[in-house]
């Protein structure tokens, strides 16, 4: 029967190019090493090494075994090491609104991974309320929120304030305008927006209520890709956060800032207060706890 030890011995002989040097590396006698290689050759039914006065070199069969088994044993060793140290890999469970997970979270993934010390698990929810509940009941360690309210037992740390952009087909008359007014958008345009519950919708609703106007919402959808599909068709225009809007790569769609009465959303990270010193350093930038 072929043993893992025999394979390791053979690989080391090929690496060293010499039975003597390999025996020194393996801390066994040269006769014992030679005997183990001979047993391997007998089990495989072929010669694996050419012996000469300079040392040894692999036969074609030996080279095939070396090339295939080197990677296999490296992966074997990594797996064994991972299993032995499994408890040392911490599962970091992160929840977030869909567009924050897609467009905002990636910039922090390297820090969150902590050079492999954390296994980052990401999940999405449709509302801040669901995310906060997940944090409270232990489903999440960290959550990403939009326009979050202060919480009694949870630290809510603002990370970024970003404007909403107007997104429309390049054939739309807005494409020729330098200044785009929020009032003009909500009073004259057909809007294709995210479906409630949605913090972006809440920002739009709040501003419309202050201005005492009722927007013409013709379609409500869950996914950004769906919004862009209908906007591209000319079924309406939409309002998206800047990190989402600036990532659009569709030549049929234009993205513009709202120059008069801009609307903003605030992106925050939330965690249990006792975890702030542990997790907050993973998020760079100026922050304050609310």
Automatic annotation (TrEMBL):
It comes from the Bacteria. Residues 2-59 form the HTH lysR-type domain. The keyword Zinc does not apply. GO terms for cellular component: protein-DNA complex. Keywords: DNA-binding, Transcription, Transcription regulation. InterPro entries: LysR_HTH_N (IPR000847), LysR_subst-bd (IPR005119), WH-like_DNA-bd_sf (IPR036388), WH_DNA-bd_sf (IPR036390). GO terms for molecular function: DNA binding; DNA-binding transcription factor activity. It holds the Pfam family LysR_substrate. PANTHER family: HCA OPERON TRANSCRIPTIONAL ACTIVATOR HCAR, TRANSCRIPTIONAL DUAL REGULATOR HCAR-RELATED. Belongs to the LysR transcriptional regulatory family. This is LysR family transcriptional regulator.
